[in-house]
Amino acid sequence: MNLRDVEHHPLSFQQEVELERYRRIPYCAACCNEVRLYRLEGEIDRACLSLAVDDLVRRHAALRTTMGSRGSGQVQQVHAEPQDPFRTSASPADDVDSLAHVLLQRRHTMDDIVDGRPLFRAELHDVAGCVFLSITISHLVYDGLSYVIIVRDLAELYAARLTGRPAALPPLGMSYGEFAQLQRNSWRELRHSAVPFWASIVSGYTGTVRWPAPPPVQAASPQPARRHHELALPADCSARTLELARALRVSPFTVLLCATGVAVSRVMRQRDVLLGTQIANRNTPAVQHAVGFFSDIRLTRVNSLGVRSFDDLVVAVREDWRAAERHRDASIDPVLEALGGPEFVKVDMGVDSNGNEDLTLPGVRVEEIPITAPDPYYRKLKVMWVNQKPGYVAHVTYEPSAVDHRVPVEITEQITGILRNPGTCFGTGNIR
After folding, report:
1. Cα separation of 338 and 340, whole Å?
2. 12, 316, 337, 382: which has the highest count of C-beta atoms within 10 A?
3. Whole-angstrom distance, CA of residue 429 vs CA of residue 44
4. Which residues are CB-neighbours of 243 under 8 A, at least 6 positions away?
5. CA atoms of 348 and 383, how far apart (whole Å)
6. 137-159 pLDDT, tens per residue?
7. DSSP 290-322
């Protein structure tokens, strides 16, 4: 490696926490690789596709990034050229399922990451008379919105190569490495206001999440790595969610977030829970079209003490979120460290991509092949809300060796009851 062709940037706070998670829970390094597989049919110009992928990697510095060390710490190494050039792989797979298995097996381990292996890889595969495109990318250099940007840019770059015209893509204001440097520089000032603000939000919170654990016999028996439970919100509850959102001037997700918090507190038998919600964290035009791990966590305290009704709780959460906007540029990771690392329950709202994550290539029929990885799950429980019009669906993912299998069912039953009768939400005995 020619060191003159490498730029060094500090890790972002997101990357720093992610790498620490990999060290503590080694299987997370592989689990946190996104693997996408597409079947391509039609007139595929392989030369143009190869050039388009190289154009994509040159456009986004995050896709040319590896992990390295400098002095006593780790850094991002941004290379001038792609480190894993696009190619047709001589895959030993003889069918699509075998190919998916091979791709999952090739995901980076922590040792691979520390050794400076490329964090982005795109390949063509000729399998059983069909052509497949695979994309593998580490969470260290991308988030959910980044993947939308990747497929959008790749489609345009391929179309531009086919026709010999310049690609019509928005300019990039900042690379991810530059974002990480700015993030760390600004933290020196932001911490003076952000830490006291969040300290006031979590003041008095126990700092722990005490899930009802499975019985010892169940915990000792063979268990799948993770399980899922789904709630399709009844029509009357979805309608009530929208009604409350309009009346209280909040998003429907705020109502669902509060209902989830109350449900969790009932199942945990404590009146106070802390929730964490993924936010895009792309507040400035400079990063709106960049690839990188920008997303952050917004904390929500759901505390029923001193709250008379569910409506009052929603309003209190609404005001907390508005107040938190003043501190949105302060990453939550160093804030949590300063506060002693209080635990939270992850509750997210899935973004309706409206097909934005679909890959389209001119003259080519593209079909995404779903890949399900039987990976362990490092969170004990997570709730993801999705707007599947005309209603909402809650997807609960949990670790069966850590959380009793009845817990997700009880949470979703409680959510339904809360939304159906929010007026009785804080009646005597509801939360013990």
Report:
1. 6
2. 12
3. 64
4. none
5. 6
6. 999 999 989 999 999 999 999 99
7. --S---EEEEEEEE-TT--SHHHHHHHHHHHHH
Give the CATH number of the domain where residue 125 resides: 3.30.559.10
SS3 4: helix
**Nearest CA to 75 among 15, 121, 118, 22?**
15
The domain containing residue 220 runs over which residues? 192-424
Q: 169 with 225, same domain?
A: no
Quote the pLDDT of residue 4.
62
Q: What percent of the chain is helix, strand and coil (3-state, nearest 5)? A: 45, 25, 35
72 and 118 fall within a common domain = yes
Cβ burial, residue 373 (10 Å; 0-12/13-18/19+):
middle
If pLDDT is split at 50, 70 and 90, which confidence band does 376 have? confident
Work out the end-to-end distance of the chain between its first and last CA atoms, rounded to an integer number of angstroms. 61
For residues 8 and 71, is the Cβ–Cβ distance under 8 A?
no
pTM: 0.91
Cβ–Cβ < 8 Å for 9, 78: yes
Q: Single out the residue in 176, 203, 227 at which a domain terminates.
A: 176
| Same domain? 295 vs 416 | yes
Residue-by-residue DSSP string for 132-161: EEEEEEEGGG--HHHHHHHHHHHHHHHHHH
| In-domain check, residue 54 | yes
Q: Answer with the one of 124, 152, 176 that is the final residue of a domain.
A: 176
CATH code where residue 371 lies:
3.30.559.30
pLDDT tens-digit readout, 4-61:
689 999 999 999 999 999 999 998 999 999 999 999 999 999 999 999 999 999 999 9
- Domain match, 308 and 386 both: yes
Q: Are residues 27 and 159 in the same domain?
A: yes
Convert the pLDDT of each residue in 204-261 to its tens digit: 998 888 888 887 765 555 556 789 999 999 999 999 999 999 999 999 999 999 999 9
**Domain count along the chain:** 2
Whether residue 209 sits in one domain with residue 142: no
Is residue 87 over pLDDT 70?
yes
**CA atoms lying within 13 Å on the CB side of residue 175:** 22
Q: Residue 184 domain-assigned?
A: no
User: What is the average pLDDT value for the chain, to the nearest integer?
Assistant: 90
Q: Are 65 and 58 in contact (CB under 8 A)?
A: no
Are the C-beta atoms of 382 and 348 separated by less than 8 Å? yes
Report whether pLDDT(431) > 70. Answer: no
